[in-house]
Design brief:
There is one protein chain. With 297 residues, this protein is α/β, with parallel strands linked by helices. It has ten helices and eleven strands. The strands form two sheets. Strands 1, 2, 3, 4, 6, 7, 8, 9 and 11 form a nine-stranded mixed sheet that branches. It has a two-stranded parallel sheet with strand order 5-10.
Length: 297
């Protein structure tokens, strides 16, 4: 091969490389640049978080939101480990979780993003209409084991609960089973059936006339029956609703939370600001949860 031919071949090869590089640059510039937000945790919140994510991505197509459940404990553990942008929680973060996060150099910041009632649900064939917190505690601790003790037929009570990793389980244990008393050590009856999802409790109550369960208000369907609840025998019996939660009359109500690792910035902050907007809080109402009356700044 003579010198001229070799030079021409080298020039052609250089031109091809240059053209490929330019095409790569053009393709890279033309491809969308997404911002990814990882959101994990509470199964109570997961459907709401999915609805928020879907709507927000319509408004901001440059943002990609990954939403998964697994329970409040799973979300907070991911926050502590630095593997999630936003942790969803149906209870407040515990002191030992705060300590573990800070040991990892993470300062969890709390946002109240909605409110919820925990509804006590039974089968529609069960004639019981109302229960006190003490009666519910006695049912779940095993002191009351038969519906006859509450005025119905001689039927064994089938107790249904969320699994221990659930924030709803923890809240129910502390505020209902233990009646909000810090020194109370009451535990769930050993024969309580632990189910992995809110939907699972609703399905079982619908199918089993002897069952009793508890669920976030947003998961209660028309084919189960909600029980009115009173603080004690001297108090009014109240059914859960947005109005009874916001008025403070329903006794088993709670805030729902999102946590970030330090003060949120950039797209995460913009997303949280949007969640607290009137538009996003309407989605809370549409899904059966309780929207915030006064949004955080």
């Amino acid at each position: 091969m003579n010198r001229k031919v070799l030079i021409l071949l080298l020039l052609n090869f250089s031109f091809l490389l240059s053209g490929c590089h330019q095409q790569d640059q053009i393709a890279e510039a033309a491809s969308p640049q997404y911002v990814y937000i990882e959101n994990k945790g509470s199964d109570t919140i997961v459907n709401l978080a999915l609805a928020w994510a879907e709507e927000y991505q319509k408004l901001h197509p440059e943002v990609r939101l990954s939403v998964t459940g697994g329970g409040t404990g799973t979300g907070i553990a991911a926050l502590i480990n630095g593997t999630v942008d936003i942790a969803n929680a149906s209870r407040r973060i515990k002191q030992e979780e705060l300590d573990a996060a800070r040991q990892n150099g993470i300062d969890p910041i709390e946002f109240v993003i909605a409110r919820d009632a925990i509804a006590i649900i039974i089968n529609p064939n069960n004639p019981i209409e109302k229960l006190t917190l003490q009666q519910i505690s006695d049912i779940y601790s095993g002191k009351i084991n038969n519906w006859l003790e509450l005025g119905w037929e001689d039927r064994p009570i089938v107790r249904l609960s969320r699994e221990t990793n659930s924030g709803t389980h923890t809240y129910f244990l502390e505020h209902v089973l233990r009646l909000g008393q810090p020194d109370n050590k009451t535990l769930f009856s050993p024969d309580t059936l632990l189910l992995p999802s809110s939907e699972g409790i609703t399905v079982e109550v619908r199918q089993n006339p002897n069952a009793i369960g508890y669920d976030g208000l947003g998961y209660v369907t028309e084919d189960v029956k909600m029980v009115a609840v009173a603080e004690d025998t001297r108090s009014d019996y109240i059914l859960p609703s947005a109005e009874s939660v916001n008025s403070g009359r329903y006794p088993i109500a709670r805030d729902l939370y999102m946590y970030t690792a330090g003060r949120p910035e950039g797209e995460v902050k913009e997303y949280l600001d949007w969640i607290l907007s009137t538009e996003a809080q309407q989605i809370v109402k549409d899904l059966g949860f309780v929207p915030l009356i006064r949004h955080q700044p």
